[in-house]
Write a structure and sequence with these properties.
It contains twelve helices and 23 strands. The protein is an alpha/beta fold. The strands form six sheets. Strands 2-1-23-22-21 form a five-stranded antiparallel sheet, sandwiched between helices. Strands 18-9-7-4-19 form a five-stranded mixed sheet, with helices on one face. Belongs to the peptidase S13 family.
């Protein structure tokens, strides 16, 4: 077990600063023995919110800390281990920025083995994956263009898809089987395709458009266009009535079944569907791109073989930086990004692209940052596993500690921001807390599973103090308790201790948020999950 030294050191620095300025505060890391009237009122407000009947029989863990002093303003069951859902991404994302660095990039390259004569390659062409979760069909097309520009016209051997940077375990060990067809539980491979600029790697978007006449099946297409997915179209176009199209992939293969009905003249129905074995999906998209650029591969497609050291480079694509990737990752709570980063951490630090190696390294980092890893369990990178158990107080310790990291401003900006309507600014908080003191103020990670909700992050109080908070709610039976989280966050945004001795800090600066790459469009929008 690691010693929790960083928060104590941070609190000691804050205490020295307060003494130097003549301010007074409670012992760092502990609730004041005689709270001020404002703090007493805040606690009563949060207690009232948590007494809501929607939480009857449920579990609630809430901790609020003033990051400048280390003073605990509120603690309800802070040491209780609860399922955190996507709040788990706080651990994965901070560890990735520290261990890989904000400038880390994923590389996908094409190499050739065998003899070259004019445009003939007498050997294999290797597509080697580097784990990039942002590879689009357009990127594979650009790789194919580079191969053509290198002079290759005919490949006598095979197209080999090399995904050996990571292991072949495609799904998290605790993920439920009925999540497997849906985009938030995509299979993890070092070689994959994303269909859109949300970068939902390992998925294909299936569109069902009405036919011109009633009685005919809808017209089904995919983005990207691929023969890797087989469509079983059982749906029907109707003259009128409500559109009710269901699109779901059958377990164990790539047959997508389309059922239901769609009315003539209605807009197409679209859904994101995971593919079975994303390595083959990437190879299919790349092989089609080669064909478009006039390159014939005479052999078959082979999956999972390593690229020989002697193979010479032909083409290469580098991803955006990890610092830039934080925006789609955290704003949209992308589970696939979390799992790729977990395996990438393992690969870079120990040479093993596995969940076990990655989670070990993440655990070591967060322990050094002040979390007591003997009091929590992390089973995946995203929070999809229900065996993740993390107390709210441990989240707050991490949130307090990472403020000192050189990459903090990038990470803080990448967190969802309450009440900001742009998807890549507000993210999963874009429709929450609008018109309140929390709007444009709260930067926090959301979390949702059935019966599980969480919100952990930062809010600047009305008297200018940066508060770190964690709200974890488990085992409720109602549809949603997110309005209770919002009420707590709004109360914190309006909190004012009063008096000249209150410690004040400037709200962290937010760097410019990266936008969708020029020339790339995504006209469809799926519901945001968290």
């Amino acid at each position: 077990m690691h010693r929790r030294h960083f928060p104590r050191a941070l609190a000691l620095v804050a205490l020295v600063a307060l003494v130097a300025t003549g301010a007074t505060a409670a012992a760092p890391g502990a609730t004041a023995e005689s709270p001020t009237p404002a703090t007493t009122n805040l606690r009563a407000t949060i207690d009232t919110i948590l007494a809501d009947t929607r939480l009857a029989g449920a579990q609630a863990s809430v901790v609020v800390v003033d990051t400048s002093t280390g003073q605990t303003l509120y603690d309800r069951n802070g040491d209780r281990r609860l399922v955190p859902a996507s709040n788990t991404k706080l651990l994965t994302s901070t560890a990735a920025l520290e261990l890989l660095g904000p400038g880390h990039r994923f590389s996908t390259d094409v190499r050739a083995s065998g003899k070259r004569r004019a445009g003939l390659l007498s050997g294999n062409l290797y597509l080697r994956g580097g784990g990039d979760p942002t590879m689009l069909a357009a990127d594979y097309d650009a790789l194919a263009a580079q191969v053509a520009a290198d002079g290759v016209r005919v490949v006598t051997g095979n197209l080999v898809a090399d995904d050996t940077r990571y292991d072949r375990t495609r799904l998290g060990p605790d993920w439920t089987w009925d999540d497997e067809p849906y985009y938030y539980a995509a299979q993890v491979s070092a070689l994959t395709v994303a269909p859109d600029t949300d970068y939902d790697a390992g998925t294909v978007i299936v569109h069902a458009a009405p036919a011109d006449r009633a009685g005919a099946p809808p017209v089904v297409t995919t983005t990207p266009a691929t023969g890797y997915v087989r469509v079983d179209n059982r749906a029907q176009t109707v003259s009128d009535g409500e559109t009710s199209i269901s699109i779901e992939r059958e377990h164990g293969g790539n047959t997508v079944v389309v059922t239901g009905q769609i009315a003539v003249g209605d807009e197409p129905a679209s859904d994101w569907v995971t593919v079975w074995e994303p390595t083959g999906y990437a190879a299919d998209v790349f092989r089609a791109a080669l064909h478009r650029h006039g390159i014939r591969v005479l052999g078959r497609t082979v999956l999972g073989q390593p690229t020989p050291e002697r193979a010479h480079p032909v083409a290469r694509h580098d991803s955006m930086s990890l610092g830039e990737l934080m925006t789609p990752f955290l704003k949209l709570s992308n589970n696939g990004h979390a799992e790729v980063l977990t395996k990438e951490i393992g690969r870079v630090l120990s040479g093993s692209g596995t969940w076990t190696a990655g989670l070990t390294a993440i655990s070591e980092y967060v322990a050094d940052s002040g979390m007591d890893t003997g009091k929590l369990r992390q089973r995946d990178g995203s929070g999809l596993s229900r065996r993740n158990l993390i107390p709210a107080t441990e989240f707050v310790d991490l949130l307090s500690a990472v403020r000192a990291e050189p990459w903090f401003a990038t990470w803080y900006a990448a967190l969802p921001i309450a009440g900001q309507p742009e998807r890549f600014v507000g993210g999963t908080l874009r429709s929450r807390m609008a018109g309140t003191p929390a709007a444009g103020n709260v930067h926090a990670k959301t979390g949702s599973l059935t019966g599980v909700s969480g919100l952990s992050g930062y809010v600047t109080s009305a008297d200018g103090r940066l508060l770190a908070f964690s709200i974890l709610l488990n085992n409720y039976l109602t549809a949603s308790v997110k309005s209770l989280e919002d009420q707590i966050a709004v109360a914190l945004a309006g909190f004012r201790e009063g008096g000249a001795s209150s410690a004040r800090v400037a709200r962290p600066a937010v760097p410019e948020t990266p936008r969708t790459p020029e020339g790339v469009e995504c006209s469809w929008v799926k519901p945001i999950t968290c």
